[in-house]
Amino acid sequence: MDKQKLQLQQLNYKLSQFTTAAQVVPPPTGWLKATRLALGMSLQQLANKMGITKQSMQEVENREKEGAITLKALREAAAALDMQLVYGLVPKDGSLDALIERRARELASQIVARTSQSMRLEDQENSNLRIQQAIEERTALLIAEMPKALWD
């Protein structure tokens, strides 16, 4: 197994652990405020643990709610709550393999469509079955080669 395939396999496994987490909807107030309130902790108490002012803590909570917080600030706030930040990416297609396959199929369809158009203009049009077979063959080839053009 080549290095890229091994990296892909290992990362795919790691990312698969986040699949259920991706289904969790964040609280409307943001995780920090929701957690703080659930623990019965005041804004001032959390601010004290972080070594910042109450107003600054409120800004941190607002930035998290708006999606404008840095990972560093979120990690620090989580630590002040005796928690840890868990961070990951989840492929919309379910796995990296599925993402690669979708992109390869899209690119293969474009390539085959261009070729098919040229052949149609020369009155040598292929059947729909042959076109689908060509897309499948080109998809498999693109998956095996993983060209950088896959991500253009």
Helix content: 55-70%
Number of helices: 7
Structural class: mainly alpha
Percentage of β-strand residues: under 5%
Distance separating the two termini? 26 Å
N-to-C series of helices and strands: HHHHHHH
Overall spatial form:
elongated
Q: Roughly how many Å is the radius of gyration? A: 24 Å
Mean pLDDT comes to 91
Q: In total, how many beta strands? A: 0
The major pleated sheet works out as:
none
| Unreliable stretches covering 5 or more consecutive residues | none
Overall tally of domains: 2
Core attributes:
152 residues; mainly alpha; 2 domains; 0% strand; elongated
Description:
The protein folds into 2 domains: 80 residues, no CATH class; 60 residues, 434 Repressor (Amino-terminal Domain) (Orthogonal Bundle). It has 7 helices and no strands. The longest helix is centred in the last third of the chain and has 26 residues. The radius of gyration is 24 Å and the shape is elongated.
Layout: helices, strands, pairs:
Elements: H1 3-16, H2 31-39, H3 43-50, H4 54-66, H5 71-80, H6 96-121, H7 128-145
